[in-house]
Amino acid sequence: MDRFLRLGTLPGAAAALTGTVALSMVLVAFGNITDFGTNQQFVQHVLAMDTTFKDSQLMWRAITSPALQNAAYLAIIVWEVLTAGALVLATWLWAVGLRRKTYDRARRASTVGLVMVLLLFGGGFFGIGGEWFAMWQSSDWNGLDSALRYVVLAAFALVVVHLPAAPHRR
Q1: Which of 29, 6, 16 is closest to 120 using CA atoms?
Q2: 20 contact partners, CB below 8 Å, separation of at least 6
Q3: Could you give the count of Cα atoms lying within 13 Å of 140 in the half-sphere of its Cβ?
């Protein structure tokens, strides 16, 4: 019973949120690896800026080289795999920490993984894709809404992970 009730603690919530983001990132990476072509097209269109407004002030930013587009997509997938790995490790550390009532390693590992999510979807999708490549202008290849979900979930999890836990009482 006591083990079950530990899940109702702040560290239990941090573990659950970290695990939720870990599962999401595992599935994102798995999807991009096993269905390579779908999101490859997404990256190609965003980088080529071929569905944005044809503003000559912006179009010089477009990357139309298939080799560079594919390199960018592969870099995204590698980042996703590393992020998923960090979050899976963090989830395991939370599970161990809940038994031992020590959370420092789990908190640090979660922070690394969650910040990686924020960098990918906040920096990569919002900043680079959304602003630099004007993805917001495209009605066909706009991933900003999807990226927002990941940013909100990761940011919320990061806040919960860093809330001060109450001292353990029986």
Answers
A1: 29
A2: 153, 157
A3: 11
Half-sphere exposure of 63 (CA within 13 A, CB side): 16
CA distance 44 to 136: 15
| Whole-number pLDDT of residue 2 | 59
pTM: 0.90
Side chain identity, residue 103: Y
Is it the case that residue 51 has pLDDT exceeding 80? Answer: yes
From residue 58, give the alpha-carbon distance in Å to each of 49, 73, 132, 135, 140.
9, 22, 8, 12, 18
Q: Which amino acid is at 62?
A: A
Rounded Cα–Cα distance for residues 160 and 18 (Å):
10
Residue 15 has which token pair? 């573990």
Give the residue from 1, 21, 28, 25 showing the smallest Cα distance to 160: 21
